[in-house]
Q: What sequence folds into this?
């Protein structure tokens, strides 16, 4: 039988480990639980050694971010499947077994995610992942259950297993062989959208990504970077452009990339008019960093030999949401 490891990446998250790790251990008896520590400076490692000495702990020599931390740490995890779990996630009974069963029944699927609900807002979906992620025609991400900042209540409207475009990084199941074949996460992303990039590359390599509704977890969110942090804005804008360049055909890039840059600059102007000068500056820095890094991004694009196939939604989410007032996934899906 395949071995599955639940792998938690930790950086200065001793409070999260104390709060959430016991429930992971309680509800995950069929899997090995591993913690990768991203060179924490708090008492995380001491807590693990004193309270959970039976767990495998992989200590890295520096903070490599989300992407690099997993890439380096997973080299030391012997398993057929990885469930990459944020340290601020509360799991429920059967959460891992449901995903394992789904992957056994779907051999063509390489990645999946559970239903991800918010721990802060009872009954609401989580911002990052919700009931499965998608990309619009310009590569803007959205979810079943979350369009921009509009988050839906879970009324069981998405209680069906189905293929999705991308799985949320808060709870990310991937076959180990596929992870390593694809080279893992793009470490230049550091954090944010690296899971979307990996899902897109996986799709191009011929695999599917799935959503498993009977597996349920609750995500606290904002444990590393708050939504108000300008660095998060910087990463989202920069990585969004690089995501598009790496995975789109040249014919698509000719019109999509300039359109995205224009829309990004409009968002930048909006930050300025709202008095959010730190975010205004963050977007400008992101655009400049994208240009500086473009030769390296293009090189990564040419190194990955796979068709530029994708299942993007044939709609523009910015238009649907801000002009047409469509704030739910179903409203958008019904008109595509």
A:
């Amino acid at each position: 039988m395949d071995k599955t490891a639940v792998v938690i990446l930790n950086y200065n998250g001793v409070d999260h480990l104390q709060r959430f790790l016991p429930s992971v251990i309680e509800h995950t008896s069929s899997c090995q639980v591993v913690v990768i520590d991203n060179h924490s400076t708090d008492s995380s490692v001491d807590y693990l050694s004193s309270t959970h000495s039976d767990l495998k702990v992989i200590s890295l020599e520096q903070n490599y971010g989300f992407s690099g931390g997993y890439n380096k740490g997973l080299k030391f995890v012997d398993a057929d499947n990885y469930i990459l779990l944020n340290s601020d996630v509360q799991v429920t009974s059967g959460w891992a077994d449901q995903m394992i069963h789904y992957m056994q029944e779907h051999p063509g699927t390489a990645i999946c995610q559970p239903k991800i609900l918010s721990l802060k807002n009872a009954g609401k979906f989580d911002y990052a992942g919700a009931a499965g992620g998608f990309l619009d025609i310009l590569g803007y991400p959205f979810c079943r259950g979350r369009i921009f900042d509009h988050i839906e209540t879970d009324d069981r409207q998405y209680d069906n297993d189905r293929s999705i475009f991308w799985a949320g990084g808060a709870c990310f199941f991937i076959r180990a062989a596929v992870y390593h074949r694809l080279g893992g996460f793009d470490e230049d992303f550091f954090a944010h959208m690296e899971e979307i990039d990996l899902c897109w590359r996986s799709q191009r390599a011929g695999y599917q990504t799935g959503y498993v509704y009977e597996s349920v977890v609750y995500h606290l969110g904002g444990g590393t970077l708050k939504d108000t942090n300008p660095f998060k804005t910087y990463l989202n804008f920069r990585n969004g452009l690089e995501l598009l360049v790496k995975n789109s055909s040249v014919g698509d890039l000719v019109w999509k990339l300039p359109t995205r840059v224009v829309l990004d600059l409009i968002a930048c102007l909006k930050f300025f008019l709202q008095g959010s000068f730190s975010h205004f500056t963050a977007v400008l820095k992101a655009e400049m960093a994208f240009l500086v890094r473009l030769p390296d991004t293009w090189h990564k694009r040419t190194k990955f030999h796979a068709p530029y196939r994708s299942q993007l939604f044939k709609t523009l989410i910015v238009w649907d949401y801000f002009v047409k007032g469509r704030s739910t996934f179903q409203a958008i899906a019904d008109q595509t």
In short: The two ends are 42 Å apart (CA to CA). The chain has a mean pLDDT of 94.
